[in-house]
Amino acid sequence: MKKVLGLSLMSVLMLSLASCLKDKTANIDPSGSPAVVGWSTSTTGDQPADVTAGFTRYSRSYNISTTETEMLVQVSYSGSSLPTSDVTVNLGLDLDALKAYNAAHSPQTSVVLPSTVYTMPSSVVIKAGQRKADIVVKLKTNLFDLQQAYILPLKITSTSAGAVSSNYGTVLYSVGAKNQYDGVYALKGYVVRQGDTGGLMGYTVKGIANRELITLGPNSVSFTQLWANGGGIAGIDGTTITVNPTTNKVTMSASSNPALKNLESYDNRYDPATKTFYISFYWGNGPAHRAATDTLTYIGPR
């Protein structure tokens, strides 16, 4: 009798547990998930440059142009079902996010992209039955101050349906302008260092000498010369390549060393057809003391 009673009680307990589990499963209803609106990069191809103070930063660079350049960004609606009516998403700038970013990167400072160099709508509509909407920011890259590090701190201020994403309600976009010479170049050349016996003088090492030429002005780019073994060269910081856009002749200079200059007997030039620089320059006590003769061939954008 005790055995039968024990089995009966066991059966009741198992049935009760099954009932509870069934109830809990039924209560997990995906259709009840709240809708969230946030910035999206799933189709724009942006990769995070960094995440600082809880804000994700992306980076965009555009060619300098006298016509407006379109910068495409996107907002998305996430939820268990598509919106049944249009969703209005209001947009603005998050200056507090930029302030937090600068505080985390002190002493380097970025400034907000000036309103004089771009236009963007104050809102966008995600259509009923859709999950995404595009926003076109129109940039006047020819008005950019190339000495400034610009950030556009985009913020979703409100939405007519759902909640603003706590993680992607604000995104930071570093926005820069590039001239036609900006990019990654293969470096092939010969470097002179008088009296060297340690491998600094000679032909640059193949395969390790790709260089980034970075926009400094409408017709100038920064350049970092290497020794033959791939090591950096001290004393010529701020080396700059400046192109005359009419003649394609090149002038070499260095902000830290006024002695750096073109080798007069060499035709320093840029070939736009092949996107190749031919440069020869010296510093120190003359061409026999410290000098370099390089060919820089364009590989692609940086």
Automatic annotation (TrEMBL):
<keyword id="KW-0732">Signal</keyword>
<dbReference type="InterPro" id="IPR025371">
    <property type="entry name" value="BT_3044-like_C"/>
</dbReference>
<feature type="signal peptide">
    <location>
        <begin position="1"/>
        <end position="18"/>
    </location>
</feature>
<dbReference type="Pfam" id="PF14274">
    <property type="entry name" value="BT_3044-like_C"/>
</dbReference>
<feature type="domain" description="BT-3044-like C-terminal">
    <location>
        <begin position="170"/>
        <end position="291"/>
    </location>
</feature>
<protein>
    <submittedName>
        <fullName>DUF1735 domain-containing protein</fullName>
    </submittedName>
</protein>
<dbReference type="InterPro" id="IPR013728">
    <property type="entry name" value="BT_3987-like_N"/>
</dbReference>
<dbReference type="Pfam" id="PF08522">
    <property type="entry name" value="BT_3987-like_N"/>
</dbReference>
<feature type="domain" description="BT-3987-like N-terminal">
    <location>
        <begin position="64"/>
        <end position="161"/>
    </location>
</feature>
